[in-house]
Structure formats: C-alpha cells, structure tokens
Amino acid sequence: SDFVSKASHELRTPLASIKAYIEMLLDGEASDEDSRQEFYSVIKSESDRLGRLIDNMLNLSRIEAGIVRPSYEEVDFANVAQSAVDIIQPQAAVKDISITFQRGPLACTAMADADMVKQVYLNLLSNAVKYTPEGGRVTLTIENDDATGSVLSTIADTGLGISPDDLDKVFDKFYRIDNYKRVAKGTGLGLPLVKQIVETVHHGDVRVTSTLGLGSKFIFTIPYEAEGV
Ligand code: ADP
Mean pLDDT in the chain? Predict the structure, then answer.
C-alpha cells in the first residue's frame, strides 16, 4: 500500500501538469504561436515522463511478483556488459564522457539471466553518465571474485557523488536526490530494479560507495552458481 500511494503520487504529478496546460490552451491563454508551442512541448515531455513511470513500474512489479521468470544459463559477463556499453556509448559521447571497460584475460561467467544482467549494466551505466558532468570518466570493471565465488562488477564514475545521508536511500523506490532532479530525467525506479535483479533473482549483492563531488562506485556480485539451478 505504501508503494501504491507513492506510485499514485508520482503518476498524478505529470498528469496534473498535462491537465493544467491543456486547460490553459482550451481557455485560450496561449495567445501566440510561440507560447502554444511551449505548452505543447511541456505536455509532450510530461506524457513521456508518465510513459517512463508506467514502463518502469510494470517492469519492477513483474519481476517482484515473479511473473517474469528468470531463465538461467551460463552467461559471459563481459559480452553482456559490452552490449550495454554499446547502447550507452552515444549518450556518453554527447557529454564527452569516456567509458573505459577493464577486463582481465580470464572469462567471467556465472549462471544468470542474461537479459536481466544486461538491464543491471544498462541502469548503472546510464546513471553514471547521467550524474557525471561533461568531460568525466566512467569505468567498468569485471572480475572473478573467487573468495566469494562470484562475478564482481564495478561501475565507477567521476560525477556528482552521493552524500552519506542519501547513500542508503538511493535504492528506495521513487527516491531521487532533490538537487539532481534538474540534472537528468529519471523515475527513481532504476536502482530498486537493480537491487531486485541482483539480490532477489540472483542471490547476489549490490552496494555503493561515494564521495560527494568526486564520484560514485556501484559494485555488484553474482554468484557463479545460481541457487536452485
Ligand atoms: P533515476 O531514474 O532517478 O536515475 P535511480 O533509481 O536509478 O533513479 O537512482 C535514484 C537516484 O540516485 C537518482 O535520481 C540520483 O539522484 C541518484 N544516483 C543514482 N546513480 C547515481 C550516480 N552514479 N551518481 C550520483 N547520483 C546517483
């Protein structure tokens, strides 16, 4: 019920603004073409936001409810990560951010759901690019952590960083750091999805360390052998 009330609030905000702008248009409050265009573009971007919220909410709740069943196979993490890097690269290029992919000579494989793992890389890489100013650096590292028997991935950025107060909240549903809302579009559901995929689906672990103003490091591990497989 907490989720439902938060979700309704999140959905209502863009809807209210779409309604307000349409009413102003209907009332003829946009007298010239320029202001009409401005109103249309607010309506467009708020509808886009509604769409993103609904997509992310469905995605998360389907996985949480176990409707999307993971299909485990031997996954080569470097391959999956590379395909995520290829997708994020254009966004990084726009901001002149370099993405460096560091991988050792040994293959890093684990029993996992490749599509879900790719979603984890996509969310973490996309955040790293979103919350890093122009000219910054993003580094992705994949290694075998034999001590814990898992593949360990690190996504580090030289971006805005996260204050100690916010560190434990960024994995909460809909949580977004207030000051960063202007920096990038988002729903606050990307990291909860990451946590769900890593911890509930794969019995791994995800954590973050950060220094405000210097950057953040998200680390996740996926055990070599999936439980119950
Ligand atoms: P969003 O869709 O808003 O990016 P997420 O759940 O992915 O939602 O992240 C929650 C919040 O955590 C973000 O809104 C942002 O404030 C903060 N955050 C996430 N990743 C980073 C990062 N790499 N650097 C700084 N802040 C981050």
Answer: 95
CB 131 near ligand 1, within 6 Å: yes
Task: Give the whole-angstrom CA distance, residue 63 versus residue 61.
Answer: 5
- 172 alpha carbon – ligand 1 mean position (Å): 10
Q: What is the pLDDT of residues 130-175, one digit of tens each?
A: 999 999 999 999 999 999 999 999 999 999 999 999 999 999 999 9
Protein residue with its CA nearest to atom 2 in ligand 1: 186
Question: pLDDT at position 226, please?
Answer: 75
| pLDDT, tens only, 190-205 | 999 999 999 999 999 9
